[in-house]
Amino acid sequence: PLTTTGALITGAAAADSAVAAFNVITLEHVEAIVAGAESVAAPVVLQVSENAVKFHDGDLLPLARAASAAAERTAVPVALHLDHVRSEDLLRRAADAGFSSVMYDASRLPYLDNLAATHAAVEWAHGQGLWIEAELGQVGGKNGAPPLDAHAPGARTDPEEARAFVADSGVDALAVAIGSSHAMTTRTAALDHVLLKRLSAALDVPLVLHGSSGVPDDELRAAVAGGIAKVNIGTALNIALTGAVREHLAARPDVVDPRTYLAAGRTAMAETVARLIGVLRTEGTP
Ligand code: G3H
Ligand code: ZN
């Protein structure tokens, strides 16, 4: 059934576990993520990014409706999250489209501008009953940008600044920059676990890891143990999808029916979803 991101995160955090949030680009992503979660009987977040909305001609509803319908049909709890929103206009379409949560991303702005924009987004979101995540520090690799130098000043989240940011903005969760980067196709990111521990001690809101596709299994487990409550995964599914489609088409160059190779891609994504949820689960996970 359809549930809320807030409920899933609260449940995961209480079990010292994390909820997996997978990025949706196509209908097959929706189907695969739900099938993968069903196969391990786990809750999951379906998240749609502003970039994915742009891909669908700026229309949020096709993916939102597909995700809502899949959530209502399945036995596992599924929440809908709007991811990396920069546009005010898109933000304001979230509630009507069935999303229970949004990530408002003003992390590219200087601190005070990020705070002011995030505070305004929080006021609106809470008025709509939406749970809202924001970002402080910079997780690199967005929109095709190269991975940031994670040691560059300002790239990582500073615990004292984060404490003030959370208190002054009123956000429900914070995406932290601790060494992961978006769109990595190798799993080679090394996380700063000392920093994560300091962030976790300084903040009383759930922490979110972005760019998790590039983070190896043992590092993901350590991040969950260190206080990460939501793990965002996108690229790993696209690697699975594209790899399976490429393999299928290479083996059968005469194929024209997209259902044959999309089915192979969907299966590969579902397997990746199940595997990664398994990595994030701890004993006692609901
Ligand atoms: O918000 C989405 C995630 O941070 C996905 O990052 O594609 O590198 O796994 P990823
Ligand atoms: Zn992200």
From TrEMBL:
Species in which this protein is naturally found: Streptomyces akebiae
Listed InterPro entries: Aldolase_TIM, Class_II_FBP_aldolase, FBA_II
UniProt xrefs under SUPFAM superfamilies: Aldolase
Needed cofactors: Zn(2+)
Protein's name in the database: Class II fructose-bisphosphate aldolase family protein
Entry-linked PANTHER family: D-TAGATOSE-1,6-BISPHOSPHATE ALDOLASE (PTHR30304), D-TAGATOSE-1,6-BISPHOSPHATE ALDOLASE SUBUNIT GATY-RELATED (PTHR30304:SF0)
